[in-house]
Structures are given as structure tokens and as C-alpha cells.
């Protein structure tokens, strides 16, 4: 599951974080309150039924 779900999730989350920092010119107030707004687009992109099934198939469970 790590390779099929969590690694891509971390990748897309970091992309969202990078966009946030670039849009704020690295002076934005980044805090816990920003987490969900940055995490949710990455989650929707990665955590899909197809990817979940693929992850379970990869670990053969």
C-alpha cells in the first residue's frame, strides 16, 4: 500500500504545498489550518477505488 497509495499521496501533497508557497511568494502563513486545503486535492487524486484495489493486489492480500 505504501508504494501504490502513500508514496503518490506524499508526492501530490508536496506539489500542493509547493504551489501554495509559490503563490504566497514563500511569505504565506503556513500552519495547521492550511493542512486540509493542501491535503484534500492530493487525497482526491490518489485515493481512488482503482488505486486502492491496485494497492491491495500489489501486496497480494
TrEMBL record:
The lineage of its organism: Eukaryota, Fungi, Dikarya, Ascomycota, Pezizomycotina. This is DDE-1 domain-containing protein.
